[in-house]
Amino acid sequence: MKKKKKIIIGLLIFSVVLIMIVLNMIKANKGEGGFSVGKGKTYSVEAKTIELLPIESTVIVAGRVEEVNKEDIILPSQVVIQEWLVEKGDVVKKGDTLLKIDLSTLKTELAQLQLSKEGQVLQMEKIQVASDISMINLQSAKALYDNLLITYTNNEALYSEGIISKSDLDASSKQLADALNQVTIAELNLAQGDTQAIENGNTSGIDIAIQQKRIEEINLNMNRVNEEISKLNKATTSPIDGIITQINVPAGTMATAMQAACTIVDSKELKIVANIREYDIKKIATGQKAMITGDAIKEDANIIATISYIDPIARKTVEGAKEETVITVELTIIEGATYLKPGYTTDCEITTEAKEQAIIASYEMFKEDKDGSKYVFVIDENNTLRRQPVTLGIISDFNAEIVEGLKVGDKVVINPSLILKEGVKVEIMPEEE
Fold it and tell me: Under the phi-then-psi rule, with left for phi > 0, alpha for psi from -120 to 50, and beta for the rest, what region is 149?
C-alpha cells in the first residue's frame, strides 16, 4: 500500500513538471518571458535608452507664514491709558504716537522732589553761614593786624628821622597791640566753637556733608522719575512701520508693567517657519531654494524662498499619538511675497540637490543585491543582457542619477522579471503609443 502511494505521488510531481515545461515552450515560441528551460530562448522585454536629463531631489514639508518684524508695545511701568490714537487695523509709521498716558502721578512726585531739594540747599547754606562767622572774624582781625604792623614799621622809620613825635609812635604801637589782642580773641572764639561742636557731636563740616548726601539722594530720585517719564513717552510711539493687529488694554484702564498694550506687525516682510524631520535634516542646508504652495495661494502664483536659518537644537513634537523629532528652519521669501499673509499654512518643496544634465535611470530599471547595491540589465548590440552594477547620485521621486555604470545611449531593461539573467537573448518590445 505504501509503495503504491509513493508511485502515485511521483506521477503527480512528474505531471506538474511536464506541464510547466510545455507551458514554458509555448511562451518561448510566442516570444513571452517565462521560466527558462534549455538554451537559445528569446525573451520579450521593455527597454529605455539612457539620456542626459535634468534631475533634482526635494523634501516637502509643511510651513506657516510669520512676520519677520513684530513688535509688542510694552509700557515699562504701571500707568493709566487715557486715550488710544489708533485702532486695530490702522497702518502706522515708525515714530507715530499711538496712545496718551496719565503721567500726573509721576509729575507730582517730581515736583515734590524739587521742593525738597530746594529746602535742603537752603539748610546747607544756613549751616555754612553760621560756620563761617568765626572764621570771618579771625580773617578780619588778622588783616587789620597786618595793616597796623606795616604802619608801625613805617612810623618807626619816620620817628628815627625826626618826622613824627614819640607820642605818635606810642599811639601806633598801642593800636598794633590792640589788633594783636583781637587776633588772639578771634582764634580763641574759633577754637572754642569747634570744641563745642565736637563735644555736641554736631560739627558744621559734618552737617554740611549730611546735607550734601541728602541732596544727592534727591537728585538720584529725580533722575529716576525723569527717566521713567522718558521711557513711558518713548513707549507710546511705534518702533516700526506696520499694522496694528491687537489692542490689549482699553482706554481708561491701568496697564501693568511689562504688559503688551498693543501689537504692531510689519506685513511687508514675512518668513516661513517649517519643521524638518530628523531623517531629512541631513539633506537640508542654508541657501537651498524652495517652491511655496498652499490652499490659500493662487495656483499660478510663483513663490520662491530660501532657507536662511536652521535651528541648532532638535525638539520633540506630537502629531496625534505619534511623537517625532524635528528641527525648525526659517525660509526667507525672495519672490512672490505679495501672495502671502501672516498665518497662512504652506507646502514647501525644498530642492536639496539639482543638476541641469545628468545620466538618468528610472527606478523601474533597478534590481538589488543582498547587500543593497543596485544593478541593471543592459542590452548590447547583439540583444544579449549584461548585468551592470550602478552607483547612484541624486535621487528624485521616480529617477536617479547614475554616477557610475551607465553611459548615454545604453539600452536598459525596464521592470526586469526574475527569470532574466546575464547572457540571455531578448527582443525589445515596441513602445506603446
Answer: alpha
CATH topology of domain 70-98+236-265: OB fold (Dihydrolipoamide Acetyltransferase, E2P) (2.40.50)
Distance CA 112, CA 65 (A): 52
List C-alpha distances in Å: 241 to 90, 217, 248, 286, 403: 11, 41, 19, 28, 52
Taking only the tens place, the pLDDT of each residue in 324-351 is 999 999 999 999 998 998 899 999 999 9
CATH number among 2.130.10.10, 3.40.50.150, 3.40.50.920, 2.40.420.20, domain 2-50+366-428 = 2.40.420.20
How many Cβ atoms from other residues are within 10 Å of residue 28's Cβ? 19
Q: Do residues 304 and 337 make contact, with C-beta atoms less than 8 angstroms apart? A: no
Are the CB atoms for 389 and 395 separated by under 8 Å?
no
The DSSP letter of residue 297 is S
CA distances from 428 to 42, 45, 421, 425 (A): 10, 5, 15, 10
- Name the residue among 382, 287, 378 with its Cα closest to residue 329: 287
Q: Which three cell numbers stand for residue 126?
A: 544756613
**pLDDT tens digits, 375-416:** 999 999 999 999 999 999 999 989 999 999 999 999 999 999
Asked if 260 and 245 count as a contact pair (C-beta separation under 8 A), the reply is: no
CB 40, CB 226: distance < 8 Å: no
Domain boundaries, the chain: 2-50+366-428, 59-68+269-355, 70-98+236-265, 105-231
Query: Residue 21 and residue 8: Cα distance in Å, rounded?
Result: 20
Identity of residue 172: S
CB atoms within 10 A of CB 51: 13
